[in-house]
Amino acid sequence: QVQLAESGGGLAQAGGSLRLSCAASGGTFSTHTMGWFRQAPGKEREFVARIRWSGGVEDYADSVKGRFTISRDNVRNTVYLQMDSLKPEDTAVYYCAAAPYSSRNVGAYDYWGQGTQVTVSS
C-alpha cells in the first residue's frame, strides 16, 4: 500500500533546470526521512539529498551542494528536488525513498519509487 512515485525527469541542457516530484501515499511518513538517490550506468546508487517530513535540517551530497534543493509541499504529501545548473554528470535515474531514521545510507531506506530518468546534454 505504501507507494512513492517520482515524476519530472526528462532531458535538459547543461546549465538548465529540472524539478523532480515524489508523491507519497499509503502510509504515514511524519517520522520519516525522505531521500533522493541517483544511479548512473556502471555506478553504484548514490545519495543526493534528504529531508525530514517534520521539517528541519536538509542534507546534500557534495556533488550537488549549491545546485540542488530538496523541499516538501504544503500538504506534506510530496517531496521535491529542484535541480539547477545541471551538468552532464548529473545524468542518472533518480529515486525517491523513505527511511525510518535519518541517514545517507541506501540500506536505511525501506521504501523506494521506480525512478525517473534525468539526462543532461552538453
List the keywords.
0% helix; four-stranded antiparallel sheet; seven-stranded mixed sheet; 122 residues
Structure class: mainly beta
The ordered H/E elements are: EEEEEEEEEEE
Low confidence ranges: none
Oligomer: single chain
Helix content: under 10%
Q: What's the total count of β strands?
A: 11
N- and C-termini, Cα separation = 40 Å
- Please tell me the overall pLDDT: 93
SS field, number of helical segments: 0
The geometry reads as globular
Summarize the entry for a quick read.
The chain contains no helices and eleven strands.
Overview of the molecule:
With 122 residues, this protein is mainly β. Helices cover 0% and strands 50% of the residues. It has no helices and eleven strands. The strands form two sheets. Strands 2, 4, 5, 6, 9, 10 and 11 form a seven-stranded mixed β-sheet that branches. A four-stranded antiparallel β-sheet has the order 1-3-8-7, with no helix packed on it. The radius of gyration is 13 Å and the shape is globular. 31% of the residues are buried.
Q: How do the helices and strands line up, and which of them pair or pack?
A:
Layout lengths: L2 E5 L2 E4 L4 E8 L7 E7 L6 E7 L5 E3 L7 E5 L5 E6 L8 E8 L11 E2 L3 E6 L1
Parallel strand pairs: 2-11
Antiparallel strand pairs: 1-3, 3-8, 4-5, 4-9, 5-6, 7-8, 9-10, 9-11
